[in-house]
Specification:
Layout lengths: L2 H21 L8 H13 L3 E2 L8 E6 L9 E7 L26 H17 L7 E7 L7 H7 L8 E8 L7 E3 L2 E4 L1 E10 L3 E2 L9 H12 L1 H5 L7 E10 L5 E2 L2 E10 L2 H21 L3 E8 L4 E3 L1 H13 L4 E3 L15 H4 L5 E7 L18 H15 L13
Parallel strand pairs: 3-4, 3-5, 5-16, 6-15
Antiparallel strand pairs: 1-2, 2-4, 6-16, 7-14, 8-12, 8-13, 9-11, 10-12
Helix pairs in contact: 1-3, 3-10, 5-7, 8-10
Bound molecules: nickel (II) ion (NI).
Length: 400
Amino acid sequence: MDLSAKNGQWESDLIRQFEWFHSHPELSYAEKETTAKIRALLTKANIELMPYPLDTGLVAVIRGTKPGGDRRTAALRCDIDALAIQEETHLPYASKNPGVMHACGHDFHITAGIGAAILLQNQRADFGGTVKVIFQPGEEESHGARKIIDAHVMCDVDRIWGFHADPSQEAGVIAVGEGYVTAAVDHFIIRLHGVGCHGAHPDEGKDPIPAAAAIIQGLQTIVSRNINAFHPALLSVTRVQAGAAWNVISPDALLEGTVRTMEPKDRLLYETRVREIADKTAAAYGVSAQTEWIPGPPATHNDGRMAALCETIAKKTRQKTAPQAPSMGGDDFSYYEDPAAVGKEIPGCYFKIGTGVGPQIHHPAFCVDERAIRPAAEYLANLLLADMGSIGLVPAPLSR
Ligand code: NI
C-alpha cells in the first residue's frame, strides 16, 4: 500500500471540506447549510450524534471502548458561525454569500474538529471514556455557548477544550499558557437626560453634552485609580451620540462602550464605578443619568494541568509551541467553565493554533494557511486521546 498517497488523500479531503465551509459562511444562528454539511460528514464516518434541540450546530459523541479505561467525558468546542464582513481575499474559494465571511477562522475550527472526530472514532479501542465534539452556533453573537449549556450538553462533561485560529503564528504553532487568556466582556449604555433649548441660550436649559464629556473623562480614571495596577482591565467608550442641529442644545445624550476585565472582582468594581461616575457627574451638571449594564461572557481561565498537557502533546508530535498572549477580546467559550452557567466546576483550556502570519481575525483579507488544517486535526485528536488516558498517538498514516 502506498502510505504517503493515503495521507495525501486524507489531507486533500480535509482541505476540500475547509474550502467548502469557507465559501459557504453563515451568520450566527443561521448556520443551516453548515450544520447539514457537518452532519453529513460525521454520519458518513459512522459517528454518533447527540439528540439536540437547537436549529443549528450539533454535538458528535465518540465513545471509547477500552475496558477498564478512564470513564470520564471530555468535550472539544468548535464554533461554526461567520461574520457580516465583505470578503476581500480574492481566494478561488472566497465566500459565495455577499457580505458574509469566515473572517474569524471558524471554518478552520469546523474542519479540524471534524477531522479530530473521525480520527478519535477510528481510535475508540485506545480509550475508555467519552469525547463530545461540540459544533457550536452563535459564538460571534456571544451567547451560543449558553444555548449549548441550556440544551444539557454539559451535564456529563468533566473538562472542556477549545482552540482558536491565530494569524500571528506560523501554520501549526500551538500557543498555550495557563491562567486568564481572554477577558470578561461587558457592555454599558449611559443615557443622559437634560433640558433642550436654543444654542444661544444655554442658561435656559440643562445641556447633557458637557456632562457626557466629563463622564467620558471620569470613566478613564477607573483603571488608573480603582483597579490594582497588576490586573489587566480597560474601558472603551465606543459611541457618543447627542443633538441633531447646530443651533439647538439637545435634551439627551447617549454614551455606549465596553469594559474588559480578567479578575471577577474587577468586573464588579467596574460596574459599581461606572454607575457612580455616571450618576454623580450627571447630577453635578444638573442632568440625570440611567446606566444599563449588559454582562457578556466571563474571562476564560486555563487550567494549569490542561495547559501543560497541551504543551506536552505539541512537543510529542513535534509541533512548535509559543507562549499564549492573553487577549482583552472575549470568547463565549468561558461560559463552559463558568459554574454560574453550568452549575458545576469544569476545568477548561482554550489555546491557539497558528494559521499563518497575515491579516488579523475580523479583517476582510484574513485567510487560513491550508497547511495548518491536517496537523490541527491530528493534534486535537492526539490531545484528546492523551487526555482520555491513552498513551499512544494517532498512528500515521491515518486509516479512514
Ligand atoms: Ni472566533
